[in-house]
Amino acid sequence: MDLTAAALPPARRRSALLAVDLLDIPWYKRAAPALVAMALVALADFLSGKDRYLAPLMTVVPSIAALTLRPRELLLVCSLGLLIVFGLSHYDQVDNVNDERFLLGAMVSYLVLTLFSAWVARIRMRRAAAYAAVSSVAEAAQRALLRLPGPTVGPLRLAVRYASAADDARIGGDLYSVLETPHGTRVLVGDVRGKGLGAVQTAAVVLGAFREAAYDESRLRGVAARIEASVERHVPDGEFTTALFAEFRRPGAVELLHFGHVPPVQVLADGTVRVLEHPDPWVPLGLGRLVPGEPDSWDLPFGRDDVLVLCTDGVVEARRDGSGDFYPLAERAGPLVHGAARSPAELEAAVGRLYADLLAHTGGVLGDDALLLLISRVDPAPGALAGEPA
């Protein structure tokens, strides 16, 4: 997903509208319910014999068509229904005065219902357009908020995949940022509780605080404390954000700070996979006032041929076919990511393979936002890292 645009392109907005109002489905498939209803009425009239006249049942057709068709399509389909009514009246030999009056009343009712249903279809499309516009604006706001970093930030190479959920909320609270600061290269990956615009607003608070504190605070714990304070001030009580902080200050090492987030996976140069679970993880951001003490960071070796895989719970909690096993990231990351630290192209190919494998596991549908961020080291010149003496 391209996150560089501040607003969604027209084609994306059109896709949102089509998906909301079923217009991404061919018209003949959307017309199928109304056509089936016509066929059933005609068949019932034919099988009941000439002494029973069931054509007035055709009045159900406009109501069914209003659920799936555009107004013009509805008028076209319902015109076919009117012709069928005429045909059935000829078949049933409607020729006396009482029957003709009955037929006239049925036709007038059919025409009135057709016009009313066309108006209902128009209202339905307007509301669908309004909903699609709101969803598109919210998704555009989320794209602008994230500010996709370049393929290289400081001493790090990056490759990312971010996919919005396939459900009605459309947007969620997954967030990430990578900044080169005077104190080293700092990374934040987080997941806000909930979905929709409220989650985006909370993500804005967290990211805004991180982008300020990352440059001001000399230690990673100070950055986290600043964000915790911002969340307590500006986010409603009960809302929280799981987060993982990483700092690359020294060559060959990474400092991690956990706040109830999914543990990262490290793929070593030989293909060995390590799940980096903190021995004493802290509570999510927004809940710090409920527990005493301070979170502890920890340092780990991180070589130039290693790859760090960061993600959100939309990845590790993705189920096979929506109800089966969780996605086994630790098992799949090794063979799919091994060797990706050699070049930016290989790192980008690796995140593509991992994301494709995730989609294959779920049958192509994600039930939650999913973020995959792969990080490897660029071999810097001596003294090039922030914080290192020249």
TrEMBL record:
Domain of life: Bacteria
GO molecular function: phosphatase activity
Keywords from the UniProt entry: Hydrolase, Membrane, Transmembrane, Transmembrane helix
Keyword Transmembrane helix: yes
InterPro entries (alphabetical): Bact_Sigma-Reg, PPM-type-like_dom_sf, PPM-type_phosphatase-like_dom
Residue ranges crossing the lipid bilayer per the database entry: 31-48, 74-91, 103-121
Entries under Pfam families matching the protein: SpoIIE
Limits of the PPM-type phosphatase domain: 157-377
UniProt-recorded name of the protein: Membrane protein
